[in-house]
Design a protein that fits this description.
3 helices; about 20% strand; alpha+beta; 4-stranded mixed β-sheet; binds zinc ion
């Protein structure tokens, strides 16, 4: 466990259900969970920490309501309105790292 700027982050073996198996990290303010092999992935941290800030900006619960409403239409990936900026920042991080 580590605390970074108020973000309480955990390493877990697997992200549990109901999250899909493809999910390797989850932010539910004020916590972020990472699968253990991704815990120190700096670009995944950029992604999840963006969600942490975004959830706080939305006062948390409305963010999850909006996420759930849009998910059937936009999926849970980079096409989701609340994921676009997180993926853009993650991709920029990977590009800067030469990945
Ligand atoms: Zn995300």
């Amino acid at each position: 466990m580590r605390i970074v700027g108020g973000k309480i982050e955990f390493s877990v073996k697997r992200i549990p259900r109901p999250f899909p198996e493809s999910v390797c990290a989850v932010c539910v303010w004020p916590f972020i969970w990472y699968e253990e092999d991704r815990y120190d992935d700096p670009c995944l941290q950029v992604h999840e920490r963006y969600h942490w800030n975004d959830q706080l900006r939305w006062l948390v619960i409305p963010w999850f309501i909006a996420y759930g409403i849009l998910r059937p239409f936009q999926g849970g990936g980079a096409g989701h309105w609340l994921e676009r900026e997180a993926y853009a920042r993650q991709d920029a991080c990977r590009a800067a790292a030469g990945e």
